[in-house]
Amino acid sequence: MMNLYITWKAENEVGIPIIDEQHRGAVATINSLFYFMQQDKGMEALLPTLKVLDQYTKIHFETEEMILTQEGYPDLEAHVMIHRDLVRQMAEVMRRAVAQSDPTIVLVFLKDWWMDHINKEDKKYAAYMRAK
Ligand SMILES: [Fe+2]
Q1: What is the Å distance from ligand 1's center to 4 Cα?
Q2: What is the pLDDT along the chain (132 residues), one digit of tens a residue?
Q3: Which of 3, 19, 36, 97 would be 45's cystine partner, CB 3.0–4.6 Å?
Q4: How many CB atoms neighbour CB 50 within 10 A?
């Protein structure tokens, strides 16, 4: 039995059900890439995984940005910029992974970006909503 790359923990939750659900969905996709890498099929899984994540990320960011707009979150603009920045960084990380035939670059980047974003940036708006 192989371990998951990222183990979702209750402490990663922001307390907004649809957001937590989508975060788990993104993590599940990253875990699937890792699973394939352990089967030595990482490069095979790389493009399909990234396609799924790309589309899913659009839906997720849109969901978050809608909720933050509706809630009048004061740092909405900064948060949106961080989302846009991921999209830009992903293109570059993806290019490097393909050039070097190494999906590890994508895997590590995704884990670091998502877990850091959830636990720092997303928790900021969670705190704002709790205080409202
Ligand atoms: Fe976010």
Answers
A1: 23
A2: 689 999 999 999 999 999 999 999 999 999 999 999 999 999 999 999 999 999 999 999 999 999 999 999 999 999 999 999 999 999 999 999 999 999 999 999 999 999 999 999 999 999 999 998
A3: 36
A4: 21
